[in-house]
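Backbone-to-sequence.
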């Protein structure tokens, strides 16, 4: 079963393995399989579920809402996000303006079949809207009872500091950041994690297995597996290419197998357990196309990796690791 951690300096507890439906529900995975994956997550003790209005252009929220129907709402933590366009992409259909935030939260709640979300997250930083306007809108969402807490996603350390200060002045809590993080992609370690730890902000990390690369299924010099994410132009092939284009990365992932074997883990379980060794990480988001993937990945919960094995992982991956803090700033569009 899954362990639980506090989210930031708040009193909210979330499951350290969180189920997310980016790239799956409403797009890659048929509805019945998606429902089965959510039920497998519930059976494994996962209580935290992450989605976003933009995933499959709102369909992912609808599928999650249906999957969680009949569950005791107070026993769940439901997260969603706002920023990217979900309508006809008009001038106000994206970003973090007051208009877009207040309209988007109502749409998300309707699709998720709930009166509130536990965590409402800014999916990116909006350079086109004054931060004061954004945070005031989030304050009003919290005061209206439509969200209990506010988080962000892929914000830089300076952006998190500024947002946290405004949130405090406005009387609500900014408690989390949702960045990409894995043993191969560590750009948050240099600046974002130290700033967040100082402020009482946790990381809820996505892609802990590096879009599937850290499962070891992509072999150096071999054709890409049929039906894998790397072959799906609509399902993340572009993102995973940064690792697949480097055969030495794939070989180093294979070289991790003895470490996983020593811990009695699969490579995927090792990858999820690795991100959870970071004390500033509250949860690792896992996705799934089959229920058994959920059942397997939750076995990473509660695993402690000895320091000597963490050092060995660092030695094996070496200069294949992406760690430049500047990568975070690149994820937010300069205009919308």
């Amino acid at each position: 079963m899954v362990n639980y951690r506090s989210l930031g300096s708040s009193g909210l507890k979330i499951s350290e393995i969180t189920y997310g439906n980016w790239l799956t529900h409403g797009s890659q995975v048929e509805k019945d399989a998606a429902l089965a994956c959510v039920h497998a997550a519930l059976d494994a003790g996962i209580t935290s579920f992450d989605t976003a209005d933009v995933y499959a252009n709102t369909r992912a929220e609808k599928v999650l809402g249906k999957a969680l129907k009949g569950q005791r709402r107070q026993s769940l933590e439901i997260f969603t996000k706002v920023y990217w366009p979900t309508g006809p992409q008009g001038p106000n259909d994206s970003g973090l303006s007051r208009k877009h935030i207040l309209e988007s939260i109502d749409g998300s709640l309707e699709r998720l079949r709930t009166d509130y979300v536990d965590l409402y997250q800014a999916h990116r930083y909006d350079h086109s809207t004054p931060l004061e306007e954004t945070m005031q809108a989030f304050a009003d969402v919290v005061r209206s009872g439509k969200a209990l807490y506010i988080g962000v996603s892929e914000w830089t350390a300076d952006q998190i500091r500024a947002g946290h200060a405004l949130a405090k002045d406005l009387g609500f809590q900014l408690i989390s950041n949702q960045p990409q993080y894995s043993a191969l992609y560590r750009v948050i370690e240099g600046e974002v994690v130290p700033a967040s730890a100082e402020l009482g902000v946790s990381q809820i990390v996505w892609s802990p297995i590096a879009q599937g690369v850290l499962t070891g299924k992509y072999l150096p010099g071999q054709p890409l597996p049929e039906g894998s994410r790397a072959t799906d132009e609509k399902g993340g092939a572009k993102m995973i290419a940064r690792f697949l284009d480097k055969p030495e990365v794939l070989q180093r992932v294979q070289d991790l197998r003895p470490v996983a074997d020593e811990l009695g883990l699969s490579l995927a379980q090792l990858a999820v357990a690795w991100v959870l060794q970071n004390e500033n990480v509250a949860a690792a988001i896992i996705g799934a196309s089959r229920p058994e993937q959920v059942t397997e990945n939750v076995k990473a919960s509660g695993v402690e990796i000895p320091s000597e094995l963490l050092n060995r992982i660092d030695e094996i991956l070496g200069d294949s690791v992406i760690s430049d803090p500047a990568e975070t700033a690149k994820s937010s569009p300069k205009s919308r």
